[in-house]
Amino acid sequence: MSALRILVPVKRVIDFAVKPRVNKTFTGVETAGVKHSINPFDDIAVEEAVRIRERKLAPGGVEDICIFSAGPPKAQEVIRTAMAMGADRAVHVELAEGEDLEPLGVAKVLQKVVEEQKSNLVILGKQSIDDDAGQTGQMLAGLLGWGQATQASKVEFGEGDSVKVVKEVDGGVETIQAKLPLIITTDLRLNEPRFVKLPNIMKAKKKPLEKKKPEDFGVDLAKRLKVVKVAEPAPRQGGGKVEDVGGLVSKLKELGAL
User: Fold this and answer.
1) Is the preceding omega at residue 208 within 30 degrees of 0, hence cis?
2) Is domain 4-226 given the CATH code 3.40.50.620 in the classification?
3) Is the pTM of this model over 0.90?
4) Neighbours of 242 (CB within 10 A)
5) Which residues make beta-bridge pairs with 92?
6) What is the pLDDT of residues 71-123, one digit of tens each?
7) Domain-by-domain residue ranges, the chain?
8) What distance in Å separates the CA atoms of residue 172 and residue 188, rounded to the nearest whole number?
């Protein structure tokens, strides 16, 4: 098997424990003064890349683990966290505060980064928890002409650049056999990311971080989607009340539960 050069894209999102609020103009979610962190699915992707190296899961070994992120200057926080977990270096495409890229734009930039970094394996979260698009990995595979294995819950490496990926589907599990180069998107059950210790965070500050601008890649990043309005979901309606056990039984029969 070829030595792995792994690229792991990560995104800075509102922390999963924070309840998002719609902004006053109804154009998006309020982000000012809100805690942000690494996208949980991307956190799993970083952990998987580092485990592949530490546990020597790939016969050819891991030559390099590079983190990628496109976001505002504050995105460096999640980039450094990813490097503290064990990645070697990072590429940060700086965007203005409040600016973002659509999934296709991210995929186009990633295509160029993959070519520049000579990556042969890209591991990324199956979706980000802010827009829940779940499109970037698939679009990147299409642009590169690579195989893809989405929503991975287990990854195994074999001989001859072969990779086996197990994914959960509605009816159970599905196993995919593919070859490098490959795109893998991660699901929640793939692993449990490690807790990053302070000494590793300090060491990560010395690791290489290359800064770039979107225009450095020479790709069309024009937006194709328009947000008309963002609103809170309608409140749930409460269930009807019953006076006694007999009323409950009657209601269940009416609903076909008995």
Assistant:
1) no
2) yes
3) no
4) 13
5) 69, 211
6) 999 999 999 999 999 999 999 999 988 788 889 999 999 999 999 999 999 99
7) 4-226
8) 15
